[in-house]
Amino acid sequence: MSAIFPKGFDTRLRLAAGTVLIVAGALLGVVLYLAHPQQVDTGYMPVQPVAYSHKLHAGNLGLDCTYCHYTVDKSRFAAVPPTEVCMNCHARVREKSPKLQLVRESYATGNPIPWVKVHRLPDYVYFNHQAHVTAGVSCVHCHGRVDQMAEVRQLQPMSMAFCLDCHRNPAPNIRPAEYVTSLGWKPEGDPAELGRQLIAAKHINPPQNCSACHR
Ligand code: HEC
Ligand code: HEC
Ligand code: HEC
Ligand code: HEC
Ligand code: HEC
Fold it and tell me: Which of 19-28, 46-55, 91-100 is predicted with the least confidence, judged by mean pLDDT?
């Protein structure tokens, strides 16, 4: 600290001035941390109306993501499944469980289960699941190991920097499209080398121009 103040400055004054500088620095740090888009929403894990577990259904039972999110490779939105999909099994499996009371009510009344959305981009951002999934970008790059989560939480910031990091260098994140929902899948060799081959073969070219994501 002494280098900042002229020689002969009173020691107590120097200490006081130093403390002010440190506090100001810490405050600035907090403000920058909170304002930085990378921090926004990461870790967000809302309480859901039904204690549905991906770890059980997608992990242990091995259901494919597209069994429930069946629009993910066909449209912009992945879509949360209608209650009918749950009742394919739960009409017979655990059909009296109190944990499934709301599911049975929803099926009987036709009112959808009020699932709480976990990931949400601002309205001024355009995103498309189909474009990513058919290009061979796995769910795991954006959502993490959902098949190991009892409750879904947001792992990635979904910030502009997050999107652009991959758009600038997609190769390590491209796999054969048939493995996009196998979240634990690893290629034999270098993932980036395989990615480069697929990018060349399929002419994959993620956009970096503003109007691609801000239409
Ligand atoms: C048996 C049906 C089912 C299967 C299979 C399934 N999901 Fe889900 N998924 C749901 C339901 C219901 C919700 C809404 C409740 C919740 O968030 O837990 C959901 C929510 C999600 C969300 C959060 C959506 C949001 O609100 O932002 C993600 C991400 C997700 N699933 C990814 C996956 C992935 C990846 C797989 C495959 C590994 C998968 N799901 C398999 C039923 C399913
Ligand atoms: C392919 C069949 C299948 C589908 C589809 C399915 N489940 Fe399940 N679910 C199971 C099985 C099997 C169990 C575990 C039963 C056990 O523990 O013996 C289970 C357990 C549960 C439990 C815990 C019940 C308890 O009493 O502990 C809940 C809650 C649940 N499922 C919700 C859902 C919801 C919500 C959906 C739709 C989004 C859904 N399930 C779709 C097969 C299915
Ligand atoms: C490149 C990143 C990326 C990939 C890959 C990706 N997602 Fe998403 N996902 C998102 C974003 C961003 C949102 C929030 C979209 C919004 O708010 O408009 C989202 C939202 C969702 C939702 C909530 C419903 C919706 O459509 O808004 C579900 C369910 C979901 N994703 C499942 C999946 C599954 C299953 C896969 C793999 C088959 C997958 N996602 C692959 C980024 C991704
Ligand atoms: C892990 C890699 C990865 C991440 C993360 C990612 N993308 Fe992409 N994105 C791609 C690839 C690869 C393509 C190119 C698809 C092609 O050329 O066929 C693409 C294409 C697109 C397109 C053009 C598709 C169309 O329909 O015009 C948009 C828009 C887009 N991404 C938006 C986003 C946004 C917004 C985010 C962040 C929320 C994001 N992406 C995150 C890899 C990624
Ligand atoms: C690959 C997709 C993508 C591209 C390309 C892109 N953006 Fe964004 N942009 C985003 C996302 C996602 C957000 C939302 C960030 C958030 O919610 O924290 C965003 C947010 C913004 C914001 C809001 C302020 C902020 O930082 O939160 C501005 C301004 C912006 N972008 C300008 C631009 C400009 C200018 C370009 C071209 C040079 C551009 N964007 C290109 C995805 C993109």
Answer: 19-28
Residue 38 has pLDDT above 60, yes or no: no
Give ligand 2 pocket residues (Cβ under 6 A): 50-52, 56-57, 61, 63, 68, 81, 85-86, 88-90, 93-94, 97, 99-100, 103
Ligand 3 centroid to 1 CA: how many Å?
A: 49
Residue nearest atom 25 in ligand 1 by C-alpha distance = 118
Calculate how far, in angstroms, residue 108's C-alpha sits from the geometric centre of ligand 1: 22
- The CA angle 188-161-58, to the nearest 5 degrees, is 50
Confidence band, pLDDT 50/70/90 cuts, at residue 42: confident
Tally of CB atoms within 10 A around 65: 22
Structure tokens at 98: 């109190």
